[in-house]
């Protein structure tokens, strides 16, 4: 074991989509869009943030990565007040792609690796859920694939489901931010029994469809009555896309997490991918919304950490990420 003061860890953590329509605060899926974090013990705290997605993120001790790492050390009874942290992210902030969950999971995993993996993955899941207050995004970023989870305020429980090999994902990421706080703020505190039954039924059938490979059932099962109808006014174009995307080649469609990103599941072998892209872009443009459309795949691995060998520590995070993303 290397001396902790000489250890440098590198973590790769995926983005995620939450809810998948009816599974409000319950379903999550990891996506192959990533953030990377390097962390080591230092004499003085240095936080280096790379990439356009990091604009406006604090680079002092109020940084989320630093704060979460300190929480891990505190719970482990270890004192490491000064850290050298570097982060690069391709995950857009406050767009419904789980950027804060990725940061939390990445920081927990990096700090845990730095102190020799004192916590199990399940313990990290419990801490991450306490911080996020719902297990959907953090579960997906931790475990990869599709995660079905609940949190009772004390413990989070989950089962991971392997995504079907033919599942592709098209996301439309609007060029405006929508905070989770605002998107939760528009939700009614009370719901009818009909809505509750609607969502239990749809979410259950959706999970069963994922488990049994019934891609044909995603279209009807991926519908929601608990949050999307109330959030639709916050995302111009969403209502039309939810209503019609499956007529343009999508297997199913949902608001990604708290939005504003809109997510469609698409059969990898579909010959209607261009049609779906034009439809989504057209619907958003008609409302004056510009968006970036990205084709993604489910991430199957979840967060991964490596302790860098001394000879690997010479390669900066940025050089490493360039090597990874350029193949
Ligand atoms: N399930 C959460 C929501 C995800 O929809 O508000 C956002 O982080």
Describe this structure in words.
It is a single chain. This protein has 327 residues and is of the alpha+beta class. The protein folds into two domains: 177 residues, Ribosomal Protein S5, domain 2 (2-Layer Sandwich); 130 residues, Alpha-Beta Plaits, CATH 3.30.70.890. Helix content is 35%, strand content 24%. It is built from eleven helices and eleven strands. The strands form two sheets. Strands 1, 2, 3, 4, 5, 6 and 11 form a seven-stranded mixed β-sheet that branches. A hairpin with a 4-residue loop joins β5 and β6. α2 crosses α4 and α3 packs antiparallel against α4. Bound molecules: L-homoserine (HSE). The site of L-homoserine (HSE) has 13 residues, from α4 and α5. Pathway: Amino-acid biosynthesis; L-threonine biosynthesis; L-threonine from L-aspartate: step 4/5. GO terms for molecular function: ATP binding; homoserine kinase activity. Keywords: Amino-acid biosynthesis, ATP-binding, Cytoplasm, Kinase, Nucleotide-binding, Threonine biosynthesis, Transferase. Its EC number is 2.7.1.39. This is Homoserine kinase.
């Amino acid at each position: 074991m290397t001396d902790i003061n000489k250890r440098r860890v590198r973590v790769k953590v995926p983005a995620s989509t939450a809810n998948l329509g009816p599974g409000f605060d319950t379903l999550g899926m990891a996506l192959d869009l990533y953030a990377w974090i390097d962390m080591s013990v230092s004499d003085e705290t240095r936080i280096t943030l790379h990439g356009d997605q990091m604009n406006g993120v604090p680079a002092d001790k109020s940084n989320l990565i630093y704060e979460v790492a300190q929480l891990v050390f505190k719970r482990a009874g270890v004192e490491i007040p000064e850290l050298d942290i570097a982060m690069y992210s391709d995950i857009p902030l406050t767009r419904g792609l789980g950027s804060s969950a990725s940061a939390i999971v990445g920081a927990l995993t990096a700090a845990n690796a730095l102190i020799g993996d004192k916590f199990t993955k399940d313990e990290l899941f419990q801490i991450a859920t306490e911080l996020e207050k719902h297990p959907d995004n953090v579960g997906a970023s931790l475990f990869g694939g599709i995660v079905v989870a609940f949190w009772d305020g004390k413990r989070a429980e989950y089962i991971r489901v392997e995504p079907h090999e033919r599942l592709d994902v098209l996301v439309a990421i609007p060029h405006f931010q929508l905070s989770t706080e605002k998107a939760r703020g528009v939700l009614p505190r009370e719901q009818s029994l009909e809505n509750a039954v609607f969502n239990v039924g749809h979410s259950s059938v959706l999970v069963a469809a994922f488990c049994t490979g019934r891609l044909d059932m995603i279209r009807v099962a991926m519908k929601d009555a608990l949050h999307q109808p109330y959030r639709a006014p916050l995302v111009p174009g969403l209502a039309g896309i939810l209503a019609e995307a499956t007529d343009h080649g999508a297997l199913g469609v949902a608001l990604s997490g708290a939005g504003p990103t809109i997510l469609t599941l698409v059969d990898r072998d579909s010959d209607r991918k261009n049609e779906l892209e034009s439809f989504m872009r057209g619907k958003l443009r008609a409302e004056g919304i510009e968006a970036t459309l990205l084709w993604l795949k489910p991430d199957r691995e979840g967060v991964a950490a490596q302790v860098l060998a001394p000879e690997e520590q010479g390669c900066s995070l940025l050089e490493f990420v360039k090597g990874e993303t350029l193949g």
